[in-house]
Amino acid sequence: MSLILNGCRVLLVALSSLVVSPLAIAGEPLLLAREATEGIDPRPYLVSEKLDGVRAHWDGQMLRFRSGRQINAPAWFTDALPPTPLDGELWMGRGRFETVSGIVRTDPPDEAGWRQLRYMIFELPGGKGDFANRAQRIKALVAETNLPWLQAVEQRRVPDRARLEAWLAEVIDTGGEGLMLHRADAPYLTGRSDALLKLKPWQDAEGVVTAHLPGNGRLQGMLGALEVRLADGRLLRIGTGLSDAERRSPPALGAQITFRFRGYTRTGLPRFASFLRVRDPL
Question: Helix, strand or coil for residue 97?
């Protein structure tokens, strides 16, 4: 009996060496935004442009997607980063998300592509003090590091709703996505929180692709719509926002996508849903 037990112990020890800790595969919890309510007073917030890049978390040693998966960045890009944890967007300008997404997913790294990217920092994970203090520390850290590809996201005080709406209109008219409002007095938080709000002329949400529905007429032989499972388990069909190239090669079953919409139906489903992009890989 003791031999069997000892053998079991040896087997368990051997198996344990193969088990990956959840912390090793799961992303560090980060702050996620909620939708801003109509008529919000911007005075308690620091406001920045919402960048349409790929979110990247630097843990002091490795650059990761929001999910925790490693980003295959060139060594020269990461070796020069400070040991301080950072949260931001890999970005190369308005309307360039697809290009950025392609660059950061390439393995081995696309050196020429990475030289066009900037790492735009908007938070210090685990940082002490309120957000106004952390925003100042981000500016100081970026200046001290002095890398052309490391930049601080500009944070502004906006005194009233009229100027907030004027800035939003300017951003949208020039190809931007919207604005982010971060409570200036907020400590560092994780998870979805009212401390961080996104303000856009549309709403967005995520879902998992469960089926490819065939097209008709001009779309014969291509994708007509995506069937998507929402967070509450209900299914939604999304047939707009897809290019012909995406209809010929649609997001894979099981892929998580982001879509835009405007309000809700009486049954609580998103209205006028339109495909936006495949979310960062898990």
Answer: helix
Instruction: Assess contact for 262 and 275: CB atoms under 8 A.
Output: no
pTM for this model (two decimals): 0.73
Nearest one of 65, 26, 30 to 190, comparing CA atoms: 30
In the chain, where does DSSP find H-type helix?
2-16, 22-25, 75-79, 97-104, 111-114, 131-145, 161-173, 244-248
Is 50 a catalytic site residue?
yes
Catalytic residue, from 50, 128, 139, 198: name it.
50
Q: Classify burial at 276, counting beta carbons within 10 Å of its beta carbon; exposed 0-12, middle 13-18, buried 19 or more.
A: buried
pLDDT digits (tens, 9 = 90+) for 238-248: 999 999 999 99
Q: Which of 194, 242, 187 has its CA nearest to residue 219?
A: 242
Whether 214 contacts 247, CB under 8 Å? no
